[in-house]
Design a protein that fits this description.
The structure holds 2 protein chains of 2 kinds.
Chain A (H helix, E strand, L loop, with lengths): L13 H43 L12 H33 L9 H20 L13 H23 L8 H21 L5 H36 L6 H14 L15 H13 L1 H15 L10 H23 L2 H7 L3 H31 L6 H34 L5 H6 L2 H30 L9 H9 L2
Chain B lengths: L4 H26 L6 H4 L39
Classes of the chains: A mainly alpha, B mainly alpha.
Chain lengths: ~475, ~80
């Protein structure tokens, strides 16, 4: 082992050095991805809160075209999806891949241009939406140029991860790695297909929702689950309850989930069979979700006391529980009878945030809390602030989803009641929309705390803390 | 309406995607990925971080850990 590959002067011990060196080799690119992700998290949260406040104060900021609801809301969606969640997932998947393959990052030189192009695409897309250049398709609002930049960035990421996987030193492919490989192969293909220029009319709507749901299917969910399948057993120190079920879960997930998208168009002018197939597949999702739920719950059971010591475990277990909740909710929501009430109401917004925030974002927070000290060799300062972060965002998202669910059902019932005027369905949601803005404010404060802690970690500032786990390892071999 | 170009391309891509997944699955069976599933669950552990060791305790060490760790339960700031 050459000295430059061993900057911490760790003695050769194959098990140890492979893990520590994997972390070291990944640190540059992963930190770059995480830092950009956190920056976009701030942008996305602020725009989300502005969008929410516009429901309470309809005239607020209305005189600036760039800050009208029709532009603020897609900026919130796109910066959170392609900015925060995607970039953090990218960092997380690089780190998990090197750990699970026990090698260093390969084709590392592709990763820095990837971060750069990704940010460039996001910046271009965000400005384009703000000045009114919006393609008018949900999840595909960015102009094609911006999408192209992001697609190229993603391909760079995929190539690096695939090359790293190819060089793996571990014979067995852990379940997390299956999820990561599936997502990095599928997402670029999906994204390119969705951005092709030759759809129109109903086909465009079908492709649009096929894409939007599959972005969750093949990118956000697999990375979230990969992280949960790694961090829950790893932090607790106990293998997952049933490895067999986890693999059954993966393959049934791969088989059913990509059919789900069209359930967004229940009641729309599409062939009925197309919608029915999608509903059947949505209900079949009970199988993979149940396997995941059993595994995550039964691995954690008996170890709930450990939530007291590990921020990672708190966030990841919270996220894993919400995954079960949001998936069952989604399967039910796809049913026509339920959709009659929930479609076109705030209920859907609550569901979306239960998925993208309470599940995906919370797991990514947990992952970042675990990964960062191992990259920067610096333990998180101020544990009390981490607790504030957790409780603010956990309470915030619970309030958010709760108020949107109740408000949405009421809104749906009022809209379906011909004896009531339409305006009654708007009036009834008012208190719930106010609660949502309150929840958004709590979440924003939580994020500001997280961003403060994160910057301290990057700069290695704040009080130095003794004996975090990574330090022990280094002390053992490098006196 | 006859099948538009978009439909043809989508069907083609679905077939390619399905084939890719099937090839991956057959490859996994051939390379005995599903042979010893119990052992597979243990690949995330190693000698320094074995089963039974908690690997994250940013909020302080658990009481139940080895006695040698006691006293380190609360983090102190270095001067």
């Amino acid at each position: 082992m050459s000295p430059d590959r061993n900057p911490f002067n760790i003695e050769e011990s194959p098990e140890l050095s492979s893990r520590v060196l994997s972390d070291i080799s990944a640190s540059g690119p992963v930190l770059a991805f995480f830092t950009s992700a956190v920056a976009w998290l701030l942008v996305g949260t602020v725009f989300g809160l502005i969008a929410s406040l516009k429901f309470n104060l309809p005239d607020w900021l209305g005189s600036f075209p760039a800050l009208t609801f029709g532009r603020v809301r897609p900026v919130h969606l796109n910066t959170i999806m392609y900015g925060w969640v995607s970039l953090a997932s990218a960092g997380c998947s690089i780190w998990l891949t090197v750990r699970l393959c026990r090698v260093e990052v390969h084709w590392r030189n592709l990763l820095y241009p990837s971060v750069f192009l990704w940010n460039l695409g996001l910046l271009y897309g965000t400005i384009a939406i703000l000045i009114g250049d919006n393609r008018g398709l949900e999840w595909l609002e960015f102009p094609r140029g911006a999408s192209l930049l992001i697609a190229i960035a993603f391909v760079c990421l995929s190539l690096s991860i695939l090359r790293t996987f190819h060089a793996r030193q571990v014979k067995h492919i852990y379940v997390s790695l299956w999820y990561i490989l599936a997502s990095i192969v599928w997402f670029p293909i999906l994204y390119v297909i969705a951005n092709l220029p030759f759809y129109s009319g109903v086909t465009q709507a079908a492709v649009n929702w096929w894409f939007a749901h599959n972005a969750i299917t093949v990118w956000f969910t697999p990375i979230g689950l990969a992280a949960a399948y790694y961090f829950i057993p790893k932090v607790i120190g106990r293998p997952i309850y049933s490895y067999y079920l986890s693999l059954l879960g993966f393959w049934s997930f791969a088989l059913f989930y990509n059919w789900n998208g069209i359930h967004h168009l229940v009641g729309g002018p599409l062939p009925t069979w197309l919608i029915s197939v999608s509903i059947v597949a949505s209900v079949l999702m009970f199988i993979p979700v149940t396997t995941v739920a059993i595994n995550h719950h039964l691995t954690t059971i008996g170890h709930f006391g450990k939530l007291k010591f590990s921020p990672t475990l708190r966030f990841v277990v919270f996220g894993a529980m919400c995954y079960t909740a949001v998936s069952f909710q989604g399967s039910i929501e796809a049913l026509r009878s339920f959709n009659e009430i929930s479609h076109f109401t705030h209920y859907t917004i609550g569901h979306a945030h239960l998925g993208m925030y309470a599940f995906a974002t919370m797991i990514l927070f947990g992952a970042i809390y675990y990964i960062m000290p191992r990259l920067t060799k610096w333990e998180w300062p101020y544990p009390i602030l981490i607790k504030y972060h957790f409780w603010l965002v956990a309470f915030g998202i619970a309030l958010y989803v709760g108020s949107m669910t109740v408000g949405g059902v009421l809104q749906g019932l009022y809209m379906n009641d011909p004896s009531r005027p339409f305006i009654a369905s708007v009036e009834v949601t008012k208190p719930y929309l106010l609660a949502r803005s309150g929840a958004g404010l709590l979440i924003l404060i939580g994020h500001l705390i997280f961003i403060y802690l994160f910057s301290l970690m990057i700069l290695r500032r704040g009080p130095e803390r003794k004996a975090p786990p990574w330090r022990e390892e280094v002390e053992v071999v490098a006196p | 309406m006859s099948l538009p170009l978009a439909g043809l391309i989508l069907i083609l891509i679905a077939l390619i995607g399905g084939t890719m997944a099937m090839v991956a699955f057959i490859w996994a069976v051939r390379t005995k990925q599903f042979k010893d599933l119990n052992a597979g669950a243990y690949v995330i552990f190693d000698e320094e971080e074995p089963v039974g060791k908690m690997t994250d305790n940013t909020f302080g060490f658990p009481e139940s850990e080895k006695s040698s760790r006691k006293g380190k339960g609360k983090y102190e700031s270095r001067p």
